[in-house]
């Protein structure tokens, strides 16, 4: 019997809303799985055949420790997704790579530590509202939507993020989100599973999220042909074979021209919204079983 740890954080020790669906599906496949808090020093990670990253959502505030933990677990057992994938995806500057490859990405301006001389006018990209967020983030923490009248607030948020050692990304707010929302495409082992609609998360004047993550309004969605096409292009562009990704999520919004644009590619700990796809939990469990059964795991050197 395979033994699998489902990595989470101390704030949600019994996993998120996906957890019960996934645990039942794994049990149906004779896989013994249990949640474990990622930074609990009492956990023996090498006692498991695999560790699956799920609701480790507190890592942005201690991202360096998280990456050290990722490497340590990868030395002991199979990590899903792999340490190489996590390290590539943890910093959202990967969007630069996708842009350079010709993918339609939401326009993004990057601010690095020590380089702040004000908010570039080009960051607004002709819009009246701007989204500010850390390049290393999860759950819309330290993220806000602002107007040009709030420039002092923007500058304070940018400075506070840079003080944590994280770059800042500035994106013009895409108005289509207010009506259309975001589309998230979910994949297991590179195979398309299902899609959801995520309602608008950010409003001007809301302030920053005080909890672990910003609450979301989620509904099932049938992805359009152009959304599916962009999702396929993203998976083929990643520097990893798509079938080696136990799970992946591609988040899209509509541009002013109505065409889909990539806003994020989630390969670390994304919610998979298993209750919104027919037997999505079963497909996820099958992907975990396939990856855990492979014989190609080579522990990282100590």
Task: Please give a structural write-up.
This protein is an alpha+beta fold and 302 residues long. It has a domain at 2-90 and 286-293: Rossmann fold (3-Layer(aba) Sandwich), CATH 3.40.50. The chain has eight helices and 13 strands. It has helices at 19-28, 63-76, 83-89, 94-100, 151-162, 176-180, 225-237, 280-293; strands spanning 2-8, 31-37, 50-55, 78-80, 109-111, 129-134, 144-147, 168-172, 182-188, 191-198, 218-220, 247-254, 260-266. The strands form three sheets. The chain has a five-stranded antiparallel β-sheet. It has a four-stranded parallel β-sheet with strand order 2-1-3-4, sandwiched between helices. The mean pLDDT is 90.
Enumerate the strands of the largest sheet in spatial order, edge to edge or round the barrel: 11-10-9-12-13
Calculate the terminal CA-CA distance, rounded to whole Å: 27 Å
Indicate the CATH architecture of the domain at 2-90 and 286-293: 3-Layer(aba) Sandwich
The total count of helices amounts to: 8
Helix content percent band: 25-40%
Structural class: alpha+beta
CATH class of the domain at 2-90 and 286-293: Alpha Beta
Largest sheet: 5 strands, antiparallel
Mean pLDDT equals: 90
